[in-house]
Automatic annotation (TrEMBL):
Family matches, as SUPFAM superfamilies: Mss4-like
Lineage: Bacteria, Pseudomonadati, Pseudomonadota, Alphaproteobacteria, Caulobacterales
Protein's name according to its UniProt entry: CENP-V/GFA domain-containing protein
Stored InterPro entries: CENP-V-like (IPR052355), CENP-V/GFA (IPR006913), Mss4-like_sf (IPR011057)
Family to which the UniProt record says this protein belongs: Belongs to the Gfa family.
Segments forming domain CENP-V/GFA: 6-124
Alphabetized UniProt keyword annotations: Metal-binding, Zinc
Organism: Caulobacter rhizosphaerae
Domain of life from the UniProt record: Bacteria
Length: 124
């Protein structure tokens, strides 16, 4: 059994966050950005996510249509989490945001035991 909330941290520990429940599957996106980052994603609603360190330790990158905010540690550079509108119905829904965490950062959690769903981000 995993202790909740699940805690996560970047390499240097300057950026830390927690989520209220364990992921049951992970996402692997093949878009030009995600494939270079190497993160495996777990998706949450904003109420399920809490940044536990100072926001000024987090840097943000946006590109393309600027729909998402990709965050990384300002100190060590590890990709940490992203903020997006929901795409559940195919189009961006800004009234239903999502947080995508880098599940590789979860502390004492066997993320490598979860199924991985491939996402065709190149198609967008």
């Amino acid at each position: 059994m995993t202790d909740l909330p699940l805690k996560a941290r970047c390499h240097c520990g300057a950026t830390q966050f927690e989520v209220t429940e364990a992921p049951t599957e992970l996402g692997d996106c093949n878009c030009s950005f995600c494939s270079r980052r190497g993160a495996l994603h777990a998706y949450y609603r904003p109420a399920q996510f809490r940044l536990t360190t100072a926001r000024d330790r987090v840097s943000t990158y946006q590109w393309g249509h600027y729909l998402g905010q990709h965050h990384h540690c300002a100190i060590c550079g590890c990709p940490t989490y992203s903020e997006f509108p929901s795409f559940d119905n195919g189009a961006p829904d800004f009234d239903d945001p999502r947080i995508s965490i880098n599940a590789r950062l979860l502390v004492d959690f066997a993320w490598d035991q979860l199924p991985v769903r491939k996402y065709d981000g190149k198609a967008y």
